[in-house]
Amino acid sequence: MININNVSIASIAMVILISISDVYAEDVAELLATLKSYDRVYFDAYQPRTALDMVDRVPGFLLIIPDDKRGLGQGGANVLINGNRLTGKTQARAQLNRINSRNVERLEVVDGASLDIPGLSGQVVNVVTHGSPLSVSWEMYPEWKKDYKDNWARGKFSVSGETGPINYAVTVGHDSYRNGQHGPARFFDANNQLFEQREEVQLFNGDEPYLSFDSTWQPNEDQIGNLNFKYSKFDRNSIEDSSRNAITPRGESAQAQFTSESEQRTTEIGLDYQFTLGDGKLKTTLFSYSKVNPSEQSFSKFDAVGNALVDQSVFKQRSKETEAIIRGEYAWVSQQGHDWQVALEGARNKLDINSQLFVLDTDGELIEAALDGASAIVDEDRVELTMTHSRKIQEDWNVQASLGVEQSTIEQTNGLSRSFERPKGFLAASYRWDPSTTLRAKIEREVGQLSFFDFISSIDLDENQDSAGNVNLVPSQTWLAEFEVDKKWKDKNALQTKFYLMQIDDLVDRIPLESGLDAIGNLDVAKRYGLDINATIDGKNFGWQGVEVKIKYQWSDSFVDDPVEGFTRQLTDHRLSNFNLFFRHDIPDTPFAYGVDLYEWRKAPEYRLDRIDRFNFSGSWGELYVEHKDFFGLKVKAKVENFLNGKNDNVSRIFTDRRDQGELDYVKSSTRLDSTSLILTVSGEF
């Protein structure tokens, strides 16, 4: 087993990169040119098939897609297409993956604060495309994994082209997985005495066929419109078999099975249109999202030999989520050359959910049981008004400021209606310290996005846990301060270091309820801070032509008062560290490349009313691959996943009552192993 010291490797990388800076006495004009633009020919060594392949190869750049984004709002993913934001919310990587690399002219790396697009900060990549005749690209990536079914049905087929002022891309694809885990689970009492042991096997299957359409209409320089559409149907199911063996009288000997299945149908449509109006430009965006998801989970327990049914319960749920957004933006340039924008956005979010619980009665029949708070309708109407101003103070100074207010009303079927007004905004600045170093700073007031599922009671039959709904849940509010140093050298060497500090009001976390259950709720205040490091190292500096090493390290810590016991702890289940190492060698004067990717992460415990769970990945997740970039015109890549046999180590401490009132009842320790898999990716275009 290979164990990686995250901090030491990241530190070594920084030392190497800093030493590289002393090697070069480079021409300023040459350096600036290499920092700002990467022509199509720059990526030829990698034989990219899509714009996403190219974006992922930009030195020192990390594609960031905000999670749980509230509405369309400002900013979004730190990538543009021909100077415009991507339409929609969740398809940044997918949209880039549908752009044929033949249609990409160059990638430009710009500073977000220097743009007239509110909310973008840090490095931003602008994908400059050009029209092209009809082209077709395809990709297949079957997977084989020991002890699981062969997974052949994975791939996509795209057609793109240009007809007059219209560029389009149509993609048909199918994603699927055949995964699983297995391993022992052991139960210890408060005296550390083993009383039960289980052998557990999990199987996960999922299939998602999808259809997408992307189109851009630009009849002249003053008008441009975009249309994005995607429909997918995601069928997934899982099964867990548990063989339970009593070690002492406290344990039980039984056979148990947990099954879960769902059918998720998702439709997403984005439409925007921008045109010249007066001295500025008016852009209108429409967005619609719908997801219907019927699901069912079942737990069955049998006697020790698996013949007689001892207990059974079934939980059925059908949910429908919808979101509709309309946004208008008017932007203009003042006589002094400063950028202004005023934006108005309206949104409606809705969740309609129905749930049923069935349990086994004394006659061996499934009957419906009472389930309070598990069926409801929750909807929110929201309006947001913002004004943003951008200006260049000096040649090397860029500043962007935004001020806004949000008003929202949440209504539920129980008659409860609540309204909120939340201020929001930011101040971002960037300063080019020298031709290769940019300093960035940002202060922002954010409003968090709620999950309406947290308003509804739910049941996890696998872990035998109930979660109460919380009708009083409110969005969190966060003050964020961050400072970033972006350093680049000649060739591919780059280093980004960002420190951030957050104060979160109305933190969304788990809280105890008077009913004796716990639920997702709000805590008064929490703090979180961290450090992100993103480095790219060119092996040419050490005489290793064609080698590129990327290192990504994220570390964070947090503080909040535990609502049950009152002590100061970390935010529940939050990621403490994440380490990625990517090594790739494109062998000079050959079409061959090989590489290895390593991953490690660590999380804080998850705190509930009567238990504390810690889920961690033990060791390293490793991927090893070899690639032929021109195998009779095809690109072929063979990848072995989890060749280091990484595993999940989980420990749960369960108490007899609330943690502040009960005593430790027992400890569950489990290990879940995942098999090594082989993925063969074959792609082509014509």
Helix/strand layout:
Layout: H1 6-21, H2 28-36, E1 37-39, H3 51-55, E2 79-81, H4 92-97, E3 104-111, E4 123-129, E5 135-140, E6 143-145, E7 155-163, E8 166-189, E9 194-220, E10 223-246, E11 254-277, E12 280-302, E13 309-333, E14 339-360, E15 366-369, E16 376-394, E17 397-412, E18 417-434, E19 437-447, E20 458-460, E21 465-467, E22 477-488, E23 494-512, E24 518-538, E25 547-561, E26 568-569, E27 575-586, E28 592-603, E29 606-607, E30 611-618, E31 621-631, E32 634-641, E33 647-655, E34 664-673, E35 677-685
Parallel strand pairs: 2-4
Antiparallel strand pairs: 1-3, 3-4, 5-7, 5-35, 6-35, 7-8, 8-9, 8-34, 9-10, 10-11, 11-12, 12-13, 13-14, 14-15, 14-16, 16-17, 17-18, 18-19, 19-22, 20-21, 22-23, 23-24, 24-25, 25-26, 25-27, 27-28, 28-31, 29-30, 30-33, 31-32, 32-35, 33-34
Explain what you see.
The protein is mostly beta strands and 686 residues long. It has one domain (6-685): Maltoporin, Chain A. It has four helices and 35 strands. The protein has helices at residues 6-21, 28-36, 51-55, 92-97, and strands at residues 37-39, 79-81, 104-111, 123-129, 135-140, 143-145, 155-163, 166-189, 194-220, 223-246, 254-277, 280-302, 309-333, 339-360, 366-369, 376-394, 397-412, 417-434, 437-447, 458-460, 465-467, 477-488, 494-512, 518-538, 547-561, 568-569, 575-586, 592-603, 606-607, 611-618, 621-631, 634-641, 647-655, 664-673, 677-685. The chain has a 22-stranded antiparallel β-barrel. It has a four-stranded mixed β-sheet with strand order 1-3-4-2. A two-stranded antiparallel sheet has the order 20-21. The chain is globular and about 80 Å long. The two termini are 44 Å apart. The model is unreliable at 1-35 (pLDDT under 50).
